[in-house]
Amino acid sequence: MAQTDLYKVLGVDKKASHDEIKKAYRRLAREFHPDRNPGDTAAEERFKEISAAYDIVGDEEKRKGYDQGRMFGGAGGGGQGFGGGGFDPSGFGDILSNLFGGGGGAPGGARGRGRPRPERGRDLESEVSLGFDQSLSGVQVPITLTLAAPCTTCSGTGARPGTAPKVCPVCNGRGIEAQSQGLFSMSQPCARCQGSGTIIEEPCPTCRGAGRTQQAKKLRVNIPAGVRDGSRVRIAGKGEPGRNGGPSGDLYVLTRIAPSPVFRRKGDHVEVEVPLTIPEAVRGAEVEVPTLDGRKTLRVAAGTRHGTVQRLRGEGPPVLGSGKRRGDIHYRFLIDVPAALTDEQSELLDKLASTMDGDDPRAALFAGRAPAGETA
């Protein structure tokens, strides 16, 4: 990625907002995630590229440094990159912090000799599919993550077992070089060690000196009761391991909930459509309705109209993050009009209609009409 524009990797403009960058990353990460593309090495490499790009431009401090670095022909600017060599996106934040005043102690903001600062691991995101009942009761689900973790062969040093990284002889472990530019002196990442302060003379045969490898990790995570379709559940410390003793990132689990054939989610509540016969709606009745835990009997008032909603308080889904509080169940009554009548039903309906002659339910629609010959 020495000459790659990280904004182009994520498909966003260099002036994109943080939210726009985050949205683009999530969309691409879901599309190219190894779990969705098993055995597809091209998708896996694309996923790594997307993750590395977001690790920089998705972090406001790193992005600021990256944008400043572009002005000096740095990575993403189409130049030769820092030092003209390879570019490790995960260490770019350290390089920029040295170049633009990060860290402390040594001139130019350099780190202490041979002591790179701890770096927090990246946050990860995964997606799980749940049934409607599972979303109400909570469930433990298995998840497989592909993440960059310390190489097990070299224990994360990047050096062949039995050897160790050495202090860079050019910058003496500072990670930066000072160059005189007439009246000015400018510090830039060391061309020999790429700003790390150390060099690896004998790279690890497994990770080739990177100190990290892509590894599959299996977890079982608890999804709390009450999640909705699209909820993001944070699992602290289960993201990518940090570098140089830094803390791990977090894991965010996105939930996809299968629809219920009976209940429709309405925020903290659920709604059920309950058909009523014409006699039940006219005279009133007691009808059985489904609940999330079984059945109950509701009293339907006489003269109930089509679309009337009756509420059953506190018997809806658990409200996520509120302890034991639950939402409501809304029962929407729909008048079930038969498509065809028997001869007997038709005769009885004629008798009912004859008793109601003279009652025009639409009379109110015309009560305010304009006089003849005038326009309303």
Automatic annotation (TrEMBL):
Compositional bias ranges of the Basic and acidic residues kind: 116-125
NCBIfam families: PRK10767.1
Keywords: Chaperone, Cytoplasm, Metal-binding, Repeat, Stress response, Zinc, Zinc-finger
GO cellular component: cytoplasm
Gene3D superfamilies per record: DnaJ domain (1.10.287.110), Heat shock protein DnaJ, cysteine-rich domain (2.10.230.10), Urease metallochaperone UreE, N-terminal domain (2.60.260.20)
Region listing for Disordered, in residue ranges: 103-126
Protein name, as recorded: Unannotated protein
A GO molecular-function annotation: zinc ion binding
Entry-linked InterPro entries: DnaJ (IPR012724), DnaJ_C (IPR002939), DnaJ_domain (IPR001623), HSP40/DnaJ_pept-bd (IPR008971), HSP_DnaJ_Cys-rich_dom (IPR001305), HSP_DnaJ_Cys-rich_dom_sf (IPR036410), J_dom_sf (IPR036869)
KW Repeat (keyword) present: yes
Residues of the CR-type domain: 138-216
One example of a Gene Ontology biological process annotation: protein refolding
Residues of the J domain: 5-70
